[in-house]
Amino acid sequence: MLEGKKIVLGVCGSIAAYKSATLVRLLVKAGCEVKVVTTADANNFITPLTLATLSKNPVLTEYFKHETGEWNNHVDLGLWADLIIIAPATANTIGKMANGLCDNLLTAVYLSAKCPVYFAPAMDLDMWKHEGTQQNIAQLKSYNNIFIQPGYGELASGLIGEGRMAEPEEIIDFITADLKKNLPLVNKKVLVTAGPTYEAIDPVRFLGNHSSGKMGFAIADVMAKLGADVTLISGPSSQQTKSRSIKRINVTSAADMLAACEQYFTGADVCIMSAAVADYTPVDVATQKIKKNEDTFNITLKKTTDILKTLGSKKRPGQLLVGFALETNNEEKHATEKLEKKNLDFIVLNSLNDAGAGFKTDTNKITIIERSGQKTVFQLKTKEAAATDICQKVIELIKA
Ligand code: CTP
């Protein structure tokens, strides 16, 4: 959820500023670009060098760079940010924010910004309880600034009570959940399969296919962006998921993929089988490398289990099951037969007769055929865009 987000992290003068170092680290690890703005007091609690090193960006405190006469443009910084997080937010800075004061760079950035602002207060028990503080917090909430509840516990003063800044991990979890909450697939568990399967012949050889996994990985990424909890079961593929929240399970053979799918299907709300699963596997796998002693060589194959059909037979009401069909002739007829035979909600048809569709390409041309018989033909587009069309159909059916 935080991936690729540009974040201004405001750090104020509180002992909790030591936690900002961990917060920067977690944000960077989550794929954010972080620019830290500190108040002058914050620099007494944590060195700008620490925050600059962790964020890989200079730490800004002053409006002006006195040596050069340049200024740190608070308007640009405010508009650059996708999110502002003020953690720790002291009573002083909260008071300034609530009343539109801007006597330092951080509060000027805050006033200039148009993006969501999260603030995680940190202060002593009695400062926290003071009516002035509580009114300022209520004021900030009324501006749609998002409040991150401080914890209860031992405070730097030795007092015990409310006022401890939320832990960095809690702040990350809170913001992630908040960003997700209005997304269409929040709380939906989605299982996606991708890539080929490899069926071993001997310790060095296998039967495989040309599937790259690109389509399935694109679906997993779009699903995650839409707020779903995604598990991706992938056959051998060099693809990488963009979203770090995706749980990836690597498998090799059709039998491995079946076992992983059976494990995760029960808990899934949606399952999209885009993997190119081998239909046949060798009856016997040689334990030693096979030598080229004969002029001809036969391998006896047996059918693999049809994973999608197996899942279709177990589908419970409310679960959505989607398959793919790669066809070369009588495309719609074959795809519709698979839709029915495997008990799917819809099937995504690719035809190898369409230029730019199918294996390895970065594009795809799909047709979605639903149980109702409704058919939607899409133009040739990138696999990401095709994945978005598939996910939109899932959302439409979930809502129906
Ligand atoms: N599939 C599966 N398990 C298999 C074979 C296929 O789950 N052992 C799934 C694929 O992931 C795809 C759908 O079934 O979502 C259709 O796959 P496809 O290869 O087009 O069709 P098959 O059912 O294998 O039939 P055929 O190869 O005869 O066209």
Could you please describe the fold and organization of this structure?
- By secondary structure, the chain is an alpha/beta fold.
- It has 2 domains: 6-180, Flavin prenyltransferase-like (Rossmann fold); 189-287 and 299-399, 3-Layer(aba) Sandwich (Rossmann fold).
- Helices cover 34% and strands 24% of the residues.
- It is built from 14 helices and 23 strands.
- The strands form 7 sheets. Strands 14-13-10-15-18-19-21-22 form an 8-stranded mixed sheet, sandwiched between helices. A 5-stranded parallel sheet has the order 2-1-5-6-7, with helices on both faces.
- Strand 8 and strand 9 (160-164) form a beta hairpin.
- Helix 10 crosses helix 14.
- It is elongated, with a radius of gyration of 27 Å.
- The chain starts with 5 loop residues before the first strand and ends with a helix.
- The relative contact order is 0.09.
- It binds cytidine-5'-triphosphate.
Q: In one word, what is the shape?
A: elongated
Side by side, the strands of the main sheet go 14-13-10-15-18-19-21-22
Instruction: Classify the beta-strand content into a percent band.
Output: 15-25%
Main pleated-sheet profile: 8 strands, mixed
CATH superfamily of the largest domain: CoaB-like
Number of strands: 23
**What small molecules does this complex bind?**
cytidine-5'-triphosphate
Mean pLDDT: 95
Task: Work out the helicity level.
Answer: 25-40%
Regions with pLDDT < 50 over 5+ consecutive residues?
none
Question: What is the CATH domain class of the largest domain?
Answer: Alpha Beta
Q: Architecture of the largest domain, according to CATH?
A: 3-Layer(aba) Sandwich
Structural class: alpha/beta
- Computed over alpha carbons, the radius of gyration is 27 Å
CATH fold title of the largest domain: Rossmann fold
Number of helices: 14
